[in-house]
Specification:
The structure is a homodimer of 327-residue chains. Chain A is an alpha+beta fold. The first copy, chain A, has helices at 4-7, 9-18, 54-57, 64-82, 101-117, 168-178, 187-194, 200-209, 222-233, 246-255, 259-264, 281-290; strands at 35-38, 43-53, 86-95, 122-129, 134-144, 159-162, 212-217, 236-239, 272-276, 296-302, 307-311, 314-317. Chain A is globular. In chain A, 57% of the residues are buried. At the A-B interface, helix 1, helix 2, strand 1, strand 2 and helix 3 of A face helix 1, helix 2, strand 1, strand 2 and helix 3 of B.
Chain lengths: 327, 327
């Protein structure tokens, strides 16, 4: 009998879904970042749950307050990708019985940090006992059905874009887990690990323009995000560059690492990976600049369903590789 | 520094809430069974999350399928208590990496059992790795704001009622955890542990009558439910009987146990504990009979804020005692 460590997370999820009865109409299919229920002709209730498990998800040096905040931020990031404003957050906490009052203080402040940064509130939850610290967040919001940006709307010719460069979290985990040396200038790299940000203002601004045809966050890495967009939109992507943080380029040079690998196959990053209708590029970019964000074109969607990086005359396929649970 | 095993769950929750910024208006305050967000003048989005932790919450002999089903049922039970129909369920699963494909099959069937029994669907979720099996459910529904039955509406003179007798789960756990002997007639006792039911039809029917002034489920035991209603409604209760299952009376007699203790201080039972406006008693009872349920009067709400059981001339206070995490 196959163990799930052999199957991997995606097969496990497929297996679960295959055993579920489906409603006649699903507003958003399984496989997108959020679920939705129709409230009336135009409006969706949008729902998301995400589980943060302390034993696997807390890197060395992350405080409990940062961990609790991150659990909120990673769930809100999916709302950011869909362009939906979170209206309320609930959280179920699994707490080890040897935690102290000060730990609870840190956790509750971290949860509050997370929701308040994104202009929402924690309105309910549950606590229970567990061997490890667990935070399960649920986020609720509402959206005009036409404004919600799914994973499935990309069309050949759409511009492939991201809200920022990649690789900091992968570099940070090299430092924290593999003992690579940290220099003074790597501080922003560690910040990316300890205090990740969800691109909510960016997602909301893009949704208002109506010019994003598909969107996903990059929590499983840029390569996985591209493959997931491909699968749901039935397009391929031709990339002309991989957007790498300048700090990551320096870090990689200093340590003999490949910065493009760090940018493509990391994870736990929360930039948005988007496709933009060509006629709407300027409008979309202006909208992001207005909220202090950025929109970087890195290629375009293709009819041919492979994902290819072309630099000069070299052409390289980008494989499905990144973070997957159980493996 | 105080450990949470000393503080207990209720103090931990108080501590967490004290560190949260609150929205200007909370539709339902902390301390009730669900949270809510206003959708428009009349309608609330109703939200609930509950965490089921395998290492502490699975009694001996419970299958994975039953455990997954129960995780759904216990969350839906809070919707039952509020008289709100669940419209969608999401679930985050923590899965140990040595689980097999067959385990995933059992878990997904159990989740589907739980949602379909209550005429709703699982529409999304998340999976992650953890040492123990964890199910975190979130339920979403909508309700007319006036129809939702809170914990805080009981008034002196209201009739105290329950939807069924108590004690089976406590007796079942005596059998499963303490080695008490099980006889053929105890089958319904073990069923109560393995296949608990949420009183959803009953809660929905009561909400439609508008005659229930307050409601809570009995997941932490009948005594705790009474104390929680007291705290939120600022009333006391005079009980003239404790409703004990006939099977539990027999089980207790055979084993030299006190059946009233089993009924008052158990937990993991999902009967509703309600207050009914006196003029609406007949209407409420008929509504429950119509859906195949029952409504048993066991006393009334009092101005005096203590909880007292009076049988003949004896008068006994019912202390706050029941299930509490971390302790």
């Amino acid at each position: 009998m196959a163990k799930i460590s052999y199957l991997g997370e995606r097969k496990v999820i497929e297996k679960i879904i295959s055993n579920l009865e489906k409603p006649l109409k699903m507003e958003i299919p399984f496989g997108d970042d959020v679920a939705a229920v129709s409230l009336n002709r135009d409006t969706l209730a949008v729902l998301k749950t995400d589980m943060f498990v302390g034993e696997t998800d807390i890197p060395p040096g992350m405080t409990l307050r940062q961990a609790a905040r991150k659990a909120v931020v990673m769930t809100i990031s999916d709302f950011a990708a869909k362009g939906v404003k979170p209206r309320a957050v609930l959280t179920s906490l699994g707490l080890p019985r040897n935690m102290t009052e000060m730990d609870i203080e840190a956790i509750s402040r971290g949860l509050n940090d997370g929701v308040r940064e994104y202009d929402t509130y924690l309105v309910g939850g549950d606590t229970g006992e567990s061997s490890y610290f667990i935070v399960c967040c649920m986020v609720f919001g509402t959206s005009n059905a036409k404004r919600l940006i799914t994973r499935s709307g990309a069309r050949p010719g759409d511009i492939l874009a991201v809200t920022g460069p990649f690789g900091k979290t992968a570099a940070g985990l090299k430092i924290l887990l593999k003992g690579f040396e940290v220099s003074e200038e790597d501080k922003t790299i560690l910040d990316a690990v300890y205090m990740p940000k969800a691109r909510l203002s960016e997602g909301l601004a893009l949704s208002r323009t109506g010019m994003a045809s598909a969107s996903i966050d990059s929590s499983d890495g840029l390569a996985v995000s591209l493959h997931e967009l491909r699968k749901m939109s039935h397009v391929g992507f031709a990339l002309r560059e991989v957007p790498v943080s300048p700090e990551v380029v320096k870090f990689a040079d200093r340590n003999g690492l490949d910065s493009v690998e760090l940018a493509l196959y990391g994870g736990e990053e929360y930039e948005l990976v988007l496709t933009i209708k060509p006629k709407g590029w300027d409008k979309a970019q202006q909208a992001l600049h207005k909220v202090g964000g950025d929109l970087i074109a890195i290629g375009h969607a293709t009819r041919n369903q492979d994902i290819v990086l072309r630099i000069g005359d070299t052409k390289k396929e980008i494989p499905y590789r990144g973070w997957e649970h159980f493996r």
